[in-house]
Amino acid sequence: MLNVLLIDDDEKLGPLLVDFCQPYGIQIVHAVLPSIGLERLKSEQFGALILDVMLPEMDGFEVCRTIRQSNDIPIIMLTARGEVTDRVVGLELGADDYLPKPFEPRELVARVHAIAKRQLATHAAPYLIRSENLVIDKDKREVRVNDSAVTLTTMEYQLLLLLAESPGRNYTRDDILNYLKGTETELFSRSVDILVSRLRTKLKPAAPIKTVYGSGYAFVGHVQ
Question: What is the percent of the chain with per-residue pLDDT over 70, rounded to a whole number?
Answer without folding.
Answer: 88
